[in-house]
C-alpha cells in the first residue's frame, strides 16, 4: 500500500501538470472535479469577473482538498518540520549536485559577514534578520535594540527623510564599538562619527475585546518611540513604519507566478461588490528596466527576488552591489560618507558584493523550499478532520478573498545577472525548471488591500508622556489605530498592505520561538493576527469573531497545518 | 555464502587494482583470458556487496571517531585537572587526532543517514527523521564563539554573527545567572534553540566548540585581530584554566580570561564547558555508531536489506556527489576563497582546515574504492563501486572516476602540504601564490562530481529511488 502511493506520487511528479492541474491525466480521474482543467467559461458569455483565475485550474473546492494540496510548494516542498523547516532546498535540486552547490554557496553567504559592510546597518548578516530563514523578532524589552526589525521613515507624502533616507539603521560603524555603534544623540553631528541613526523601541497598550460567544481576548497595541537621533531632527511631517523581517522561503515560487494570473484577482474598483478590492501596482525592475508587477515587500514595492535582496543588502547591511550601488548614507550624513570612503571595496568595481555572490544569494532565496502540510497522512491519503473543517471555515469566512489558496507558476526565468556557478557567472540565463509550472498553495493574492486604521501625527514626548519640543530626552512617538502606518510607500497608501503568504504559518514559532505575527510583530498568536484585520478584511474578521469556540479551534488547526 | 565469496574476490581485485583492467604486460592489452570470475576479475560483485561494504565501513569510521572522542575527553580531563602547558599541548593534539576519522566519515552525510536524521521519537525509539540528526550539534560551523566565551573583535565592520542572539548577560561561561550549571544537557538545549532565538550561526557545541576552548580566536601573535592575518593559529593560554581548585606549581587563583585577574569561577566554568562539550560529542557519536553497528544497528539492517540495495547504492552516490560539490567545493572552499574570510574557514581556531578538506575528499575516495584504513592501521578493503562499474560493463567509466578522485586527492594534498609547511588555509585563500592550489582543488571536485553523475546514470540509480525513500518519511 505504501509503495503504491509512492509510485503514484512519482508518476505525478513526472507529469507535473497533473499535480493538481490537468485533468487529462488518468491518475486523478477519481478526483477530477477538484483537479480538472475544466473550461469555466462554459461556452457562454465571457465576462470575466475578478477572482476568475487565468491559471487554467478548476475552481478550488471548499470541501475537498486538491489531490496534492499537502505539497504547498509543489515539487519545491520539504518534509522537514523542525527548527530548520524554512532552511531546506527543494528536493529536486538536492539530486542536481551543481545546482545544489550554488544553493549552498548562497546559503553560506546568507549567513556570513561581508567586507565593506556598513557604515550604517540593521544587522551584519542576512540570517541575523531572517532568523533561520524565517521571521525576525521584536526585542524583548525597550533596552534591547532592534536587530531583526526596523522602522521605515519618510515624510507624509512617502518621500524619504532628507537626512535619514527611507529606513532607520540602528547600528553604525565607529572604532571600538565592535558590535556596531548604537545611536547617540547628535553624536554624528558633534563628533563626526558614523553612529547608528536612531534608537527605536516599542511599548504596548493592552486592548480588551471579546468573541461573540463571550470569550475574552487581549491585543497588544504598539506605541513606537524613537530617541537618540545621531544626525539631527526628523522632517516636520515625519512618518514611521515598523517592519519585522519576513521569512524568505518560497519567494522563488511567488516570483514565478505569471503576472496575469495574479492580476486576474485584482478588483481595484470592487466591481464584484464583495467589499474587497485588491490592487495591483507596478514598479521598474532593475537591469531589465521593465515595468513589472510589484509583489515583494510588505507594501509591494519590488518586482523580483533580486530587487528585494539587493535593496536589503544595501539598506539593511550597508553592502553595496550591482543593483544598489550607493552606500546607505544620504548626502546630509557627512559622518557616514566619511566612514564609507574608508571601506575596503575590493570585491568588484568598487562594490562590496560581487555579481556572483549576489546571484548565488538570489538563487538560494528562490530555491528555499516550502514546508509540506502537516495533518495529512500520505500513506492513507487522508486529512485530519479538524484541518478539513477548519479549511472549510476559512473558505466560508471569505478569508480566501485575499488569502487566495492556490496559484500556478509559469516558466521561472533565470537570473538577470546570469547563471551562477561556484567560481564564476556566465552570460546565459537558464530558466529554473524546479520552480516552473508548479501548482502551489501560498494563500495570498499578492495584491494591495486597505486594511483600515489611521495614525494621528507623530508627537514629541518625554519619557513621562509630557509634551516637549526638543532635546535628547524628547522622543518621537507614533500611536496608530489599527494596522495603518499612515506612510505611503511605492504605490501603496498609508492603510494598504500586500496580502502576505500564509504557507509555513504553523511552523513560524517552531523555527523561531520568539517570533510573532503581522508586519510589526504585534500579534503574539495567529488568533491575535486575525483579530487585527480591519478595512476590507473587517467582514472576514467579524465572521471569525462570530465562530463558536470549537470552530475557532478548527480554523486555527487548519492555519497551524499550513 | 554467495556474499562471502564475492567479497573475498573483490578483496583480491582491489588489492591488485591494475590487474582489474587486464594488462599485465605479458599477454597483450587484453591480458590472459581466464574463466569469468575465476582469475581476479570481479564479476561477482553485486550492488548488495557494495552496499554491505559501505555499511561496514560506516561502522568502522564512526567507531574510530567515537574512540578518538573518548581519548580526547580523557586528555581534556587531565588538562583541566592540571592545566600545565604540556597537558595543554596534549589536549590539542588529542583534538587534532579526533578530527582525522571524523573527516573521513563526512561522506556519510547528505544521504538521509543517521548523521543527518537520527533522533528519538516520542516513544523513545531511535528513528530517522529529515534533518533531525546530530550533525549540527557535532560539527556545525561557524561557531558562535562570542556566545560561549570572551572574544575580541576586529575594529569597525566585524560583528558577531547575530547581535540579537547574544543574550543579555553575555556569553554562557560568564553568565552565571542564566546558565548556573554547565553540563551536556545545558549545551544540548542551548543548541536546540529552546530558550533563545538561534540563527544557524549560534553553534555552541561539538568539535568546534572544543576547538575554540582550546585554541581561542585565531588572532595574530600580538593579540590583535586584523584583516591581514599572520601565520599563527589561536593562542589561548593554559592560564584560562587556572583555578584555586586545580592548584599546581603554586599558581593559585590566577585565572585569566585572555587578560589576567579573571574570576576563579570563570576558569572553573570554562573547564566544565570543555568536558560537557566532549560528553555531548561522545553521546552523539555513540548514537550514530550504534545505528550503524553490523547486526544490531537498526539503520545498518535497513540499509543492507537486499530489497533496498538499489536505493542504498543511490544514497552512497548521492552522499559522494553532494559532499564533493555543494558542501566541500561550494560552501567550504569557494566561499572562503572568494570572501577571504576566516569566519568561512571550517576549523579556523586551530588552523586545521587543510585536514578537513583533505579528509572529506579522502572519504569520497574511500566510498568509491570500498576501502578504509582504521586508526589502528588495519586496512579494510571490500567491494567497491569501481568493481561494480566493471561488472556492469563500464570499465572505462570505472577508470575515469578512479582517476578523477585521484586527481582531487593529489590537488587537495597540495593544500595539505602547504599548510603543513606553515601556510595555513586561511593564508592560502589570501595570498595570490597559494590561491591556485585552492582553485584547482575546487575544479577537480567539480569534475569528479560530473563523473559521479555519469556513474549514477550508468548504474541506473535514478534520483526517484531517493525520492521514494524520502517520500516515505513525509507521511
Describe the structure.
The complex is a heterodimer of chains A (562) and B (475). Chain A has 562 residues and is an alpha+beta fold. Chain A is built from 16 helices and 17 strands. Chain A has one domain (74-561). Chain A is 23% helix and 12% strand. Chain A has a 4-stranded antiparallel sheet with strand order 4-5-16-15, with no helix packed on it. Chain A has a 3-stranded antiparallel sheet with strand order 3-2-6, with no helix packed on it. In chain A, strands 1-9 form a two-stranded parallel sheet. The longest helix of chain A has 15 residues, at 97-111. Chain A starts with a helix and ends with a helix. In chain B, 54% of the residues lie in helices and 3% in strands. Chain B has helices spanning 2-15, 47-81, 85-105, 114-117, 135-139, 145-148, 184-192, 207-215, 264-291, 298-303, 309-339, 353-369, 385-391, 395-420, 425-428, 435-458, 463-474, and strands at residues 118-120, 126-128, 371-373, 379-381. Chain B has a two-stranded antiparallel sheet. A two-stranded antiparallel sheet of chain B has the order 3-4. Residues 1-32, 34-39, 154-169, 192-201 and 465-475 of chain B have low confidence and may be disordered. Chains A and B meet through helix 1 and helix 4 of A and helix 11, helix 16 and helix 17 of B. Chain A: This is CxxC motif-containing protein, DUF1111 family. Chain A: Residues 385-562 form the Cytochrome c domain. Chain A: Residues 1-18 form the signal peptide.
Brief summary:
Chain A is α+β, with helices and mostly antiparallel strands and 562 residues long.
Amino acid at each position: 500500500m505504501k509503495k503504491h502511493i509512492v509510485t503514484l506520487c512519482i508518476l505525478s511528479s513526472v507529469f507535473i501538470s497533473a499535480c493538481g492541474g490537468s485533468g487529462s491525466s488518468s491518475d486523478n480521474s477519481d478526483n477530477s472535479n477538484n483537479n480538472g482543467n475544466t473550461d469555466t467559461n462554459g461556452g457562454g458569455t465571457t465576462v470575466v469577473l475578478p477572482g476568475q483565475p487565468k491559471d487554467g485550474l478548476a475552481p478550488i473546492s471548499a470541501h475537498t482538498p486538491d489531490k496534492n494540496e499537502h505539497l504547498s510548494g509543489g515539487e519545491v516542498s520539504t518534509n522537514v518540520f523542525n527548527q530548520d523547516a524554512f532552511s531546506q532546498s527543494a528536493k529536486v535540486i538536492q539530486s542536481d549536485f551543481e545546482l545544489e552547490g550554488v544553493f549552498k554557496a548562497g546559503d553560506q553567504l546568507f549567513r556570513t559577514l561581508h567586507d565593506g559592510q556598513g557604515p550604517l546597518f540593521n544587522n551584519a548578516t542576512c540570517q541575523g534578520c531572517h532568523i533561520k530563514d524565517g521571521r525576525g523578532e521584536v526585542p524583548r524589552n525597550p533596552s534591547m535594540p532592534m536587530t531583526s526589525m526596523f522602522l521605515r521613515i519618510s515624510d507624509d507624502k512617502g518621500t524619504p527623510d532628507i537626512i535619514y533616507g527611507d529606513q532607520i539603521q540602528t547600528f553604525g560603524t565607529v572604532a571600538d564599538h565592535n558590535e556596531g555603534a548604537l545611536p547617540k544623540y547628535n553624536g554624528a553631528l558633534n563628533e563626526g562619527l558614523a553612529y547608528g541613526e536612531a534608537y527605536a523601541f516599542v511599548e504596548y497598550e493592552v486592548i480588551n475585546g471579546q468573541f461573540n460567544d463571550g470569550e475574552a481576548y487581549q491585543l497588544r497595541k504598539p506605541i513606537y518611540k524613537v530617541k537618540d537621533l545621531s544626525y539631527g531632527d526628523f522632517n516636520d511631517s515625519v512618518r514611521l513604519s515598523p517592519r519585522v523581517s519576513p521569512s524568505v522561503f518560497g519567494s522563488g515560487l511567488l516570483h514565478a507566478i505569471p503576472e496575469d494570473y495574479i492580476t486576474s484577482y485584482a478588483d481595484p474598483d470592487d466591481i464584484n461588490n464583495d467589499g474587497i478590492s485588491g490592487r495591483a501596482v507596478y514598479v521598474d525592475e532593475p537591469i531589465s528596466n521593465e515595468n513589472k508587477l510589484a509583489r515583494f515587500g510588505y507594501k509591494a514595492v519590488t518586482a523580483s527576488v533580486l530587487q528585494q535582496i539587493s535593496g536589503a543588502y544595501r539598506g539593511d547591511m550597508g553592502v553595496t552591489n550591482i543593483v544598489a550601488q550607493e552606500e546607505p548614507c544620504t548626502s546630509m550624513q557627512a559622518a557616514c560618507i566619511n566612514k564609507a570612503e574608508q571601506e575596503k571595496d575590493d570585491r568588484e568595481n568598487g562594490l562590496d558584493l560581487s555579481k556572483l555572490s549576489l546571484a548565488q544569494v538570489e538563487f538560494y532565496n528562490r530555491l528555499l523550499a516550502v514546508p509540506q502540510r502537516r495533518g495529512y497522512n500520505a500513506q492513507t491519503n487522508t486529512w485530519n478532520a479538524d484541518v478539513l473543517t477548519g479549511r472549510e471555515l476559512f473558505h466560508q469566512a471569505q478569508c480566501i478573498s485575499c488569502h487566495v489558496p492556490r496559484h500556478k507558476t509559469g516558466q521561472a526565468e533565470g537570473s538577470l545577472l546570469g547563471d551562477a556557478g561556484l567560481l564564476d557567472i556566465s552570460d546565459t540565463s537558464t530558466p529554473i525548471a524546479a520552480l516552473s509550472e508548479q501548482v502551489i498553495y501560498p494563500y495570498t493574492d499578492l495584491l494591495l488591500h486597505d486594511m483600515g486604521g489611521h495614525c494621528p501625527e507623530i508627537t514629541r514626548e518625554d519619557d513621562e508622556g509630557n509634551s516637549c519640543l526638543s532635546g535628547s530626552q524628547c522622543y518621537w512617538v507614533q500611536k496608530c489605530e489599527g494596522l495603518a502606518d499612515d506612510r505611503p510607500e511605492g504605490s501603496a497608501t498609508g492603510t494598504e498592505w500586500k496580502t502576505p503568504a500564509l504557507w509555513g504559518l504553523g511552523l513560524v514559532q517552531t523555527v523561531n520561538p520568539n517570533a510573532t505575527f503581522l508586519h510589526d510583530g504585534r500579534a503574539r498568536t495567529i488568533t491575535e493576527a486575525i483579530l487585527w484585520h480591519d478595512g476590507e478584511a473587517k467582514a472576514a474578521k467579524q465572521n471569525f469573531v462570530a465562530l463558536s469556540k470549537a470552530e475557532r479551534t478548527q480554523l486555527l488547526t487548519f492555519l497551524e497545518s499550513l | 555464502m554467495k556474499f562471502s565469496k564475492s567479497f573475498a574476490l573483490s578483496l583480491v581485485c582491489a588489492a591488485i587494482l591494475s590487474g582489474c583492467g587486464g594488462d599485465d604486460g605479458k599477454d597483450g592489452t587484453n591480458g590472459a583470458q581466464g574463466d569469468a570470475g575465476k582469475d581476479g576479475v570481479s564479476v561477482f560483485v553485486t550492488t548488495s556487496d557494495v552496499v554491505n561494504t559501505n555499511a561496514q565501513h560506516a561502522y568502522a569510521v564512526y567507531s574510530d571517531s567515537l574512540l578518538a572522542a573518548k581519548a580526547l575527553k580523557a586528555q581534556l580531563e587531565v588538562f583541566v585537572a592540571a592545566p600545565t602547558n604540556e597537558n595543554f599541548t596534549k589536549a590539542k593534539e588529542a583534538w587534532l587526532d579526533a578530527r582525522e576519522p571524523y573527516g573521513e566519515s563526512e561522506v556519510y552525510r547528505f544521504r538521509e543517514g543517521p548523521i543527518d536524521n537520527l533522533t528519538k521519537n516520542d516513544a523513545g525509539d531511535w528513528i530517522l527523521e529529515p534533518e533531525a540528526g546530530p550533525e549540527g550539534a557535532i560539527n556545525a560551523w561557524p561557531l558562535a564563539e562570542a556566545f560561549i566565551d570572551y572574544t575580541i573583535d576586529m575594529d569597525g565592520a566585524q560583528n558577531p554573527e547575530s547581535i540579537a542572539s547574544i543574550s543579555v548577560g553575555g556569553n554562557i561561561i560568564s553568565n552565571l545567572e542564566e546558565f548556573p550549571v554547565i553540563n551536556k544537557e545545558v549545551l544540548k538545549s542551548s543548541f536546540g534553540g529552546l530558550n533563545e532565538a538561534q540563527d544557524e550561526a549560534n553553534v555552541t557545541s561539538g568539535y568546534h566548540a572544543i576547538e575554540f576552548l582550546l585554541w581561542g580566536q585565531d588572532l595574530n601573535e600580538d593579540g590583535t585581530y586584523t584583516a591581514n592575518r599572520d601565520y599563527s593559529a589561536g593562542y589561548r593560554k593554559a592560564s584560562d584554566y587556572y583555578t584555586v581548585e586545580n592548584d599546581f606549581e603554586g599558581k593559585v587563583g590566577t585565572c585569566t580570561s585572555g587578560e589576567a585577574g579573571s574570576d576563579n569561577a570563570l576558569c572553573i566554568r570554562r573547564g566544565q564547558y570543555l568536558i560537557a562539550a566532549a560528553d555531548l560529542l561522545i553521546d552523539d557519536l555513540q548514537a550514530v555508531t550504534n545505528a550503524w553497528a553490523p547486526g544490531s544497528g537498526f539503520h545498518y539492517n535497513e540499509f543492507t536489506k537486499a530489497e533496498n540495495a538499489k536505493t542504498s547504492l543511490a544514497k552512497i552516490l548521492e552522499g559522494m556527489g553532494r559532499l564533493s560539490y555543494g558542501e566541500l567545493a561550494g560552501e567550504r572552499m569557494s566561499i572562503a576563497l572568494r570572501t577571504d574570510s576566516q569566519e568561512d574557514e571550517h576549523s579556523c581556531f586551530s588552523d586545521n582546515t587543510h585536514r578537513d578538506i583533505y579528509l572529506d575528499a579522502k572519504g569520497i575516495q574511500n566510498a568509491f574504492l570500498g576501502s578504509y584504513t582504521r586508526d589502528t592501521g588495519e586496512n579494510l578493503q571490500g567491494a567497491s563501486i569501481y568493481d561494480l562499474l566493471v561488472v556492469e560493463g563500464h570499465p572505462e567509466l570505472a577508470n575515469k572516476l578512479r582517476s578523477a578522485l585521484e586527481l582531487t586527492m593529489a590537488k587537495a594534498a597540495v593544500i595539505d602540504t602547504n599548510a603543513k609547511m606553515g601556510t595555513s588555509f586561511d593564508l592560502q585563500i589570501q595570498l595570490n601564490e597559494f590561491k591556485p592550489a585552492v582553485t584547482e582543488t575546487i575544479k577537480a571536485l567539480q569534475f569528479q562530481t560530473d563523473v559521479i553523475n555519469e556513474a549514477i546514470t550508468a548504474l541506473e540509480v535514478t534520483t526517484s529511488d531517493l525520492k521514494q525513500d524520502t517520500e516515505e518519511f513525509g507521511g
